[in-house]
Design goal:
Layout lengths: L3 H19 L38 H14 L5 E8 L2 E8 L2 H14 L3 E8 L12 H14 L8 E6 L2 E6 L1
Parallel strand pairs: 2-3
Antiparallel strand pairs: 1-2, 4-5
Helix pairs in contact: 2-3
Length: 173
């Protein structure tokens, strides 16, 4: 028959053994098993609860340039002719964009992709360079209808589009 004191000693010894395995000389936890996670955190790894910045993956200039171009192409907010060059982690954006919001988003995309610095050489498109200035009213109306149809930001409520002398009017509910 075993006594409660023996159970306590076994439990205490086991607990101290586990605690000794989990801490190094500085008292840092080396291994924390957490159900549901693929890996446990160890010193030097990103800890989302510690408030650290997310570590950036170090990319070659070519890979970083391709990543920035790909993300600019995928963005529904940046519609412009943008050239990207990367040298030693610094991205240079040049070309033209539709508005200042698109310019700011393009710079943000470059930083988010992993650029350490971004030189913004983008300029706003001149009014005469905008493609819709050369469209007939019918072409303009069809282009707007097409954008509304494919936009993820517009629901399926019918929207009436009118174009007259280059001015588009939208109506509906």
């Amino acid at each position: 028959m075993t006594s409660p004191f023996k159970h306590f000693l076994v439990w205490l010894t086991f607990s101290l053994f586990i605690a000794a395995m989990m801490e190094n000389a500085d008292g840092q936890i080396l291994y924390v098993p957490v159900p549901g996670f693929d890996e446990a955190l160890s010193p030097g790894e990103y800890d989302p609860l510690a408030g650290d910045d997310i570590p950036k993956e170090v990319l070659s200039d070519g890979k970083l340039e391709n990543r920035i171009k790909r993300q600019l192409d995928r963005s529904p907010f940046v519609n412009g002719n943008i050239t990207v060059q990367v040298d030693d982690g610094t991205a240079v954006l040049s070309g033209s964009v539709e508005n200042r919001d698109a310019m700011a988003i393009a710079v943000e995309i470059a930083y988010d992709a992993g650029a350490t610095n971004v030189h913004n050489h983008l300029h706003l498109r001149d009014h005469l360079d905008r493609p819709w200035t050369k469209m007939t009213d019918r072409e303009l109306k069809e282009a707007v209808e097409d954008e509304l149809y494919w936009s993820p930001f517009v629901n399926s409520v019918p929207i009436r589009v009118q174009a007259q002398n280059g001015i588009v009017t939208l109506s509906g509910r």
